[in-house]
Write a structure and sequence with these properties.
Elements (H helix, E strand, L loop, with lengths): L1 E10 L3 H12 L4 E4 L11 E5 L2 E4 L10 H6 L9 E3 L4 E3 L7 E4 L2 E3 L5 H25 L11 H16 L2 H10 L4 H8 L3 H12 L11 H8 L1 H4 L7 E2 L4 H13 L3 E3 L4 E7 L2 E7 L4 E9 L3 H10 L5 H8 L7 E8 L16 E4 L3 H12 L8 E5 L14 E8 L11 H18 L3 H4 E7 L1 H8 L35 E3 L13 H13 L4
Helix pairs in contact: 1-10, 1-17, 3-4, 6-7, 7-8, 7-13
The protein binds flavin-adenine dinucleotide.
Flavin-adenine dinucleotide binds next to helix 1, strand 14 and helix 16.
Length: 523
């Protein structure tokens, strides 16, 4: 038994785990962080998928990282640099009549004056709503029943935020938060491509289509980045793995001990008190507090073990919906591809293929029945336009988030089904970028199963659990584990599966650290 008297053991070195560890160490705790992989950052990762070609292999855009955390942890000092920021989104039209979206501005020949004006109004209102949410996201979610003083303050602040919206906006928010993106788009705009581009943002990373209930919440969640000062997605120099590296440097500077290639196999409990962790090689390490940034299913099912939990808790964990539907495509390219109708200078922006809301809905329909989309929607990045370090000179990489690819494919994911889906996605790309096939040196497709296996995230799910109204705020990840503490004394959660959710944002990690620090000796 290794017993160097750690106050806290952090399970998992994704961005949330690293952030939580750093805040705890800054508060004087002796912290050990154990990461299963050989690299830190979790889904914020860079991998060399072909000799000389590297790519952000899971998350590809930095668009939501809390500015408070960036400042507190001095991430620029510790090596985080952006190769490009405030990028536009270009929604690719099948007729090459594209639309460019940047903050509250729209550009494109197919747009009417009315749509442009209405978009400005719409964006302004959405941003107001996201601001109200952001207030509740940067602190622990309140308990509705048995809430203490802190919970009452949070609810009060949320209430004041809503009240300050004014009667009309408040009524609108309460109405749209519960309905679907499809109807909201129909109410506001005429242009099909615009409606589809905004809807795609609402369902990215979720098992939802534009007609699914509470998809507007997904859109508000996505716009948090705008509240945090991102006027569009950013490309990190060296790929998203550089976020993990900067966070690790910051953690080490305040004394966090970090061990990679250290997969935790078990969290040991004495009754209902977590007391130690056991590594795969059977080494046991004790600590007063154990914080898991692994997803809630991994934490409770694999690490604590269902036999050690009460039936009600097991049911809650079992019922968390977290089957990923996003795949990743990576292409090593001999040259920069040409997208029809996109100027060379604009290729470094975010390009999306989602021409109509029905197109996205149909793509989602397949996933409902365990099939991959015959015409998938794509979120495309060409990071080498901005960052030459990722590929040999003059050559490029393309990275794309592909929806929908169900975790549980009916016929199972194997080499054959993966090849077939990859080919279908590349064919779709060829429709918009004729000649791209001839530029491909090597390609890789990661399905949600691959993402689960490579990144240790159950279901390969973007948020470690669907972001829907039954799994957010005071019900995230499930009632009884909503304020980072769990039914097991001394065991806390701090990953994307806890409030407020996923994306490289960092608030789950910071809020969990705040909660542990606040509880002091009672933690
Ligand atoms: C296809 C895809 C594309 C995405 N694109 C974007 C994007 O462009 N922008 C964006 O902001 N977000 C994106 N996301 C979401 C983002 O990647 C996640 O929300 C984020 O990585 C969650 O961070 P985390 O620190 O909570 O967990 P993770 O990043 O999952 O980190 C958890 C860490 O815990 C480790 N771990 C798990 N179990 C153990 C164990 N037993 N022992 C030790 N270590 C363990 C894992 O190895 C991992 O390193 C995307 C997600 C997916 C799936």
């Amino acid at each position: 038994m290794t017993d160097p008297n750690y106050d806290v053991i952090l399970v998992g070195g994704g961005h949330n785990g690293l952030i939580c560890a750093t805040y705890l160490a800054k508060a004087g705790k002796k912290v050990l962080l154990l990461e299963a992989r050989d690299a830190l950052g979790g889904g914020a990762a860079t991998s060399e998928f072909s000799k000389g070609f590297s790519v952000s292999s899971c998350a590809q855009w930095l668009m939501q990282l809390s500015p408070e955390i960036q400042k507190d942890l001095a991430l620029d000092k510790f090596g985080l640099t952006l190769a490009a920021k405030n990028l536009s989104t270009i929604a690719l039209g099948e007729d090459a009549n594209h639309i460019m979206i940047k903050g509250d501005m729209l550009d494109g020949d197919s747009l009417s004056v009315e749509d442009k004006k209405q978009y400005e109004k719409f964006y302004k209102q959405i941003l107001k709503f996201s601001k109200v949410l952001s207030g509740a996201f940067s602190r622990r979610p309140p308990k509705l029943v048995e809430g203490n003083f802190t919970d009452r303050i949070t609810l009060l602040k949320l209430g004041i935020g809503l009240k300050l919206l004014g009667q009309d906006d408040m009524r609108d928010l309460l109405r749209i938060a519960l309905i679907n993106m499809y109807d909201i788009m129909e109410e506001n705009f005429d242009n099909e491509l615009l409606k589809a581009a905004l809807s795609f943002d609402a369902v990215l990373g979720s098992h939802l289509g534009p007609r699914s209930p509470n998809t507007v919440f997904g859109f508000l969640y996505r716009r948090l980045g705008d509240v945090y000062g991102f006027k569009g997605p950013a490309v990190v120099t060296g790929g998203m793995g550089a976020v993990g590296k900067a966070l690790a440097n910051s953690a080490k500077a305040v004394g966090v001990t970090i061990r990679t290639n250290s997969k935790v196999a078990k969290i040991n409990c004495d009754g209902y008190r977590a007391i130690s962790v056991e590594l795969q090689d059977t080494e046991t390490i004790k600590a007063n507090i154990i914080v898991s940034s692994a997803d809630p299913k991994t934490t409770f099912k694999q690490l604590v073990g269902y036999p050690n939990l009460e039936t009600g808790l097991v049911r809650n964990v079992h019922n968390i919906r977290m089957k990923g539907t996003a795949a990743k495509l990576h292409l090593a390219l001999k040259d920069l591809p040409k997208f029809t109708g996109v100027a060379h200078k604009d290729l470094g922006n975010r390009l999306i293929i989602a021409p109509t809301m029905d197109y996205i809905e149909r793509a989602f329909n397949h996933a409902k029945y365990g099939e991959y989309s015959s015409k998938p929607a794509l979120d495309i990045s060409l990071p080498t336009v901005h960052d030459k370090t990722l590929a040999p000179e003059g050559q490029h990489v393309l990275s794309a988030i592909v929806q929908f690819a169900p975790y549980d494919l009916k016929q199972g994911w194997n080499e054959q089904t993966k090849q077939a889906f990859k080919q279908l996605v590349i064919d779709r790309l060829e429709d918009f970028a004729p000649g791209i096939k001839d530029l491909i040196v090597e390609s890789e497709l990661l399905t949600p199963k691959d993402l689960e296996q490579q990144y240790n995230m159950t279901g390969g799910h973007w948020h470690h659990g669907e972001l829907s109204l039954d799994q957010i705020m005071m019900t995230r990840p499930f009632p009884g584990a909503t304020q980072y503490g769990t039914a097991i004394d001394g065991l806390y959660l701090c990953g994307a599966g806890s409030h407020p959710g996923g994306g490289v944002m960092g608030l789950a990690g910071k809020n969990a650290a705040d909660e542990i620090i606040k509880r002091g000796n009672k933690a």
